[in-house]
Amino acid sequence: MAGTALLAAALTACSGGGGDQAGKDTKAELKQKPAMAVSVNLAGEQVKAGEPVKVTVADGKLALVKVTDAKGGELPGKISDDGRTWTSERNAAPGTDYKVEAQNTESQSASAQFKTSAADKVNKVRINLPKGSTVGVAMPVSIVFDNPVANKAEVEKQLKVTTSNNTEGSWGWFTDYSGSDRVDWRPKDYWKSGTDVKVEMNLNGVDSGKGGGLFAKDYSTEFKIGKDRRMEVSLDTKKMTVTEDGQAVETIPISAGTPGGKKASWSGKMVLMSKEGTIRMDSQSVGLGDAYDKMVDYSMRLTWSGMYAHAAPWNAGNFGRVNSSSGCVGMSDADAKDFYEKVQVGDPFEVVGSGSKGNAEIGNGYGEWNLSWDEWKAKSALNGAPRNG
Question: Could you tell me if residue 2 is inside a domain?
Fold first, then answer.
């Protein structure tokens, strides 16, 4: 009996010790992991826009972060090497509701929301190339800003040109003829005919800097390079030679600007900016007093300051003989009509020879082709480095 009692005691002791351990294990298993917690650098209902969104996890590592606006647009971003933070590649845009969704490596999730306030001042752009347009081989991409751009490098980082044949080119900053800030993208050499071009301006949320305000939208356009047609006006021979695909196809007698003084023509490489048809030309608008005021046919703009190629039947006796215009390149009605119908906006137009008043300022039209490639690249805000497209 004593032996039995001892065994029972032994069994009881053994059984009791095992039961306590199992209870501890069960409690350990039932203990929940702490909820995932994240912090966002932007929080509240009136957050100032114009800076990146930064999401930080309290413990563990991030596996996925999505920041979306009310329209479903998503801010791209990257998780840091240590897995603790995610930072958006673009800034939060003004006047936008954002939702933050995060997931860690243990499949837990967390969310947050914030709303940015409207911008105190909004900057906008004007681009020279409508979607679907076809232009000549010298046409640059040209963007003019409504307000000053002090943060040129930050803005330029958000501008992208993509081409169908990896055309080499670069952005360059300067002052437009209107006095506004302007940035153009010019290929190293004239475009190749048939090139397809896409321009993306991912500016929403970017800060222009002092006096400029925030951008509140993105912009984009697409265009195509048409026929390779080029014009060269010789002030010496008083003739304009037209080439297509490298072959001379036509020579047109002309009369250019009167040598010396304000009535001389601009020289150098220009670009046919627009085909304006029949327009009124008033000498007072270009600082030439009462020299002329008339309706002019087949007008094709070359500079903002008023240099055109156009029909000039009143000067017929001087075509091919004497440069006697007030700065424009005049030709007969018949030649102007035929020429007007063939040329396209963006065709290069070069004036050579003696008697000009020199090259126009770079912003007075599209004057960037008068700069060497190295000079042009140096106008980029990104250390003068070229940008491939």
Answer: no
